[in-house]
Amino acid sequence: MRGTGGLLAATTTAATATASPSASPAPPVTIGRDAAREAAAQELSKPMYHQNDPGLFQRALDWFWDKVGSLFDHASASTPGGALGLVAVAVFAVLVLAALWWRLGAPKRAAGAAGTLFDDGVRSAADHRTSAEALAAEGRWNEAVQERMRAVVRSLEERTLLDPRPGRTADEAATEAAVSLPAHEAALRAAARTFDEVTYGARPANGAMYATLRDLDLDLTRTKPLLTGPTP
User: 22-27 long-range CB contacts below 8 Å, 24 or more apart?
Assistant: First the structure.
């Protein structure tokens, strides 16, 4: 009994000493704000944290779309109706451009840089007419219009109303022919414009265009030219 009591007393004394307020705990570890930021940056710079980061191209793409979104937000904020109004303006602009493209065709050449009428060997007006009719019968309107315009100019050359000259353009032929055929000046200029738009402006031709050129060709063959030279 005495031994047991002594053991209990010793245990109680030890527990009391451990819980005594006089035993001061170890001070907490403190670190400054700048040092903490540095430590965090060093830790996060380790490759293990960047294995799934987007590549350079993806980052550039994200930056681009951020800029586009920002521009769109600014534009929609300054456009009546907000984003819906901006979309309506964009759709209208697209429709206008489409209408101009359809009307004028793709500008393949600069203005005033039209090419020559004849790009092959010398052929008679009758040959060009035959080719034009065959192409029209096949519905190849672009080529039919080109051949019919060549027939018009070649016919004028054969009648000595135009001097045969390599490198002549459709506009030049129309201007020169109008001197002796003033009543057909507007029709000749329109025919030259049609030839240039179809040949160099990518404007699709149609049956009505070809019929107009064919009528002009036939009408010119029946027209008496105006003599501008001195009378004997």
Answer: none
